[in-house]
Amino acid sequence: MSGDRDRPDPPDNIEVEPAATRDRLGMLRVLDAAMLETDAESVDAAIDADDALVARFKRTDAVVGALIGTRPEPERLHVDAVAVRRARRGKEIGSTLVAEVVRQAERDPETELVTAEFDSKLEDFYTDLGFDAVPATDADKSDRLRGRRQVNAEGDCENPDNRRD
């Protein structure tokens, strides 16, 4: 990690923790309100694999943010979706969710890489969290970027086996 900037703390009234089955409906509501294409099966799979996080308002226990991870390969954790309720945006909740998933990946010796695909308007959000961003290679996704952040790798990003697409 390159410093405190990529490890934001949640606001005092918010806690970030692994998602549990009881969080499913709250997560689906947050993701749906953000118009993200995530279905109940994906949420369930991420919860079961311990690759889902929630940001919870401490006073009411309500889910105000959600992150869904997937494992396209055993050594890669992909941020499939991250969303925060509109009223809570701009308070470092989304950054905290992504930073926490990176911390989890760092603690997992099998995980070497955290990736994400996102709209180009979110480039600063991800690069501020230590991700490298490159254009998505699909012609129909010209406004999309792919981000990647190396964790637990024996080499560094200059290693030919770990280069970007």
From TrEMBL:
PROSITE patterns referenced in this protein's UniProt entry, alphabetically: GNAT
Bias (Basic and acidic residues): 1-10
CDD domains: NAT_SF
Superkingdom of origin organism: Archaea
Example of a GO MF term: acyltransferase activity, transferring groups other than amino-acyl groups
Gene3D superfamilies: 3.40.630.30
Residues of the N-acetyltransferase domain: 14-152
UniProt cross-references to InterPro entries, sorted A to Z: Acyl_CoA_acyltransferase (IPR016181), GNAT_dom (IPR000182)
Disordered as annotated region, ranges: 1-20, 137-165
Protein name listed in UniProt: Acetyltransferase
Organism the protein comes from: Halorubrum saccharovorum
